[in-house]
Amino acid sequence: MLYICIPAYDEAPTVGLLLWRIRKVFQDYPREYEILVFNDGSTDATSETLQAYTEVLPLTIMGTPEHVGYARALDVLCREVSRRTRYPRRDAMIVMQADFTDQPEHLPELIKRFEGGADLVVAERPPVADKDSPPKPVRWMRRVAPWILRPFVSVSGVSDPFGTFRLYRITRRPGRPGYGVGRQRRSPRAHCSLRASHRDGRSPATVRPAPTRKPHSSMGRCR
User: Fold this and answer.
1) pLDDT band for position 193 (50/70/90)?
2) Going from the N-terminus, what domains does the chain have, and what CATH number goes with each?
3) CA–CA distances in Å: residue 80 to residues 30, 34, 60, 62, 190
4) Residue 41: alpha-carbon gap to chain centroid
5) How many CA atoms lie within 13 A of 157 on its CB side?
6) What does the alpha-carbon distance between residue 97 and residue 63 come to, in Å, rounded to a whole number?
7) Beta bridge pairs of residue 167
């Protein structure tokens, strides 16, 4: 199962079209999936827009009346995915933005890497057409962030540390809270490890497997 998680705040102009494009992707690339959208206290017509898609998509709408921020929204989505998953290690959580920062057409390449063995897949976005261009603050951050963070943060193979288009393999970690003796219970959080894929390939998007600490692991890059 693929859980596509989308935090949304005042995204009425874009979230509907994004959902429709996700639907089209999975029509051409069939996989079992669910979409979870966290409506983060939107003050526009986001709620009404989302409701219209519940009859044509496997869509769950979550949220709060007040705006709680991206980090809290993502935490709630992680917990819900952890609660729903029935097959850890076989299921994955994909995080996307609701404003065309992330393109649904790149989902198949992330999924291929996951099915090839990667536990964490990071997508680095190529240039896109103006109509699909992310908001101006996002474009500005991408340009300056690598220079600002270079002295402090360095992750081999990842040039966009703020990239949010990522796939995480859902993993239960023994010894964490939420585990019983003799009977495994669901952990309250979705955990992911950082084992890299041993495969390489080429795709329309730049997709990087996660860096690894294992000396025998290799990391590929595809464009």
Assistant:
1) very low
2) 2-209 (3.90.550.10)
3) 23, 12, 11, 10, 8
4) 21
5) 19
6) 15
7) 94, 121
Task: Decide if pLDDT at 6 tops 60.
Answer: yes
Q: What is the rounded CA–CA span in Å between residue 219 and residue 200? A: 8
* Helices and strands: H and E segment counts in the chain: 5, 7
Q: Is 35 helix (H, G, I), strand (E, B) or coil?
A: strand
Please give the Cα distance from 96 to 60 (Å, whole number). 15
Asked if 111 contacts 2 with a C-beta cutoff of 8 angstroms, the reply is yes
Q: Where are the alpha helices (DSSP H) in 10-135?
A: 12-28, 46-51, 70-84, 107-115
Q: Are 159 and 210 in contact (CB under 8 A)?
A: no
Bridge-based pairing of strands 166-169 and 120-124 is antiparallel
The pTM of this model reads 0.70
Is 170 in contact with 89 (CB distance < 8 Å)?
Answer: yes
Cα separation, 28 vs 127, in Å, equals 24
Residue indicated by tokens 């998007």: 205
**Count of CA atoms in the C-beta half-sphere (13 A) of 93:** 28
Measured distance CA(96)–CA(168) in Å, rounded: 12
| Phi–psi pair at 124, nearest 5 degrees | -110, 125
pLDDT in tens, 18-37: 999 999 999 999 999 999 99
